[in-house]
Amino acid sequence: MVTIPNSFTALSCPTVPLSNGRNIPILGLGTSHVGGYSHEAVLYALQECGIRHIDTAKRYGCEEALGKALVESGVPRNDLWLTTKLWPGDYGHQSTKQVCRDSCVRLGVDYLDLYLMHWPDCMVPGVSSCEVRAETWRALEELYDEGLCRAIGVSNFLIHHLDEIKDHGGIVPHVNQVEFHPFQQPLELVEYCRKENIVFEGYCPLAKGQALTHPTVMALAEKYGRSASQICIRWSIQNGVVTIPKSTKPERVHENCQVFGFSLDDSDMAALSLLHDGRHVSWDPTHVE
Hints:
The chain is of the alpha/beta class. It has ten helices and ten strands. An eight-stranded parallel beta sheet has the order 3-4-5-6-7-8-9-10. The protein has a two-stranded antiparallel ribbon with strand order 1-2. Helix 3 links the parallel strand 5 (81-86) and strand 6 (114-117). The chain is globular, with a radius of gyration of 18 Å. The model is unreliable at 1-11 and 278-289 (pLDDT under 50). GO terms for molecular function: oxidoreductase activity. InterPro entries: AKR, Aldo/ket_reductase_CS, NAD(P)_OxRdtase_dom_sf, NADP_OxRdtase_dom.
């Protein structure tokens, strides 16, 4: 169930409940490497747009800069939802626990709201990916039990990867973060996550810009008097997906936040869902063991 208030403000944010009772904001600001971080955009999102959910990763190389922006914003830590991710090169029990603590130091925080395994494929020679995933997940469970991570999850995991974790009998991931947009709709995975009470979170809601010029998206933007990006983000949110668009431009960040004052009708939701044709996959999950 998604709770959407009448207005999106710093103190009243749409949320989705996790299986452990915590609530993740349904809209966040994503970051990335290779120019995907902007100090100005993060401050604008926090101070002007009321965004309280920021997603990053060690791999992006911007945790320290983001930590400085969080302090400069003046937003109390308890009002923030901060997610970062563990890169496969750091998988393993002891490494995972140390790298998590290092991320907290760079971010300038005492705990993480959500810590994710970034990918299911592993980079540990001589050990099967299945074994490494299991060992790494045990470390995340310990970090969760210690309170360093308020929620733990995975990113880009497929159903058989999630089954592996579930079969070990420990904590089921609270979140699975996967690419999700009109051209990339892993519906079987979405349904599995809902059945197992795993919150489904979607990145790249604009399909790296490809969706913005699609005739259907453009026609709906004109119909609703909204931008193409707002149509895509609204579609994702109405599907119950936690959505983290990224932008380094304050004006785009502002635009991407204006998605709670309208709704797409059922026929338009269906029209966007029909855009999935399997040809716009930017990552190939089939190679993962």
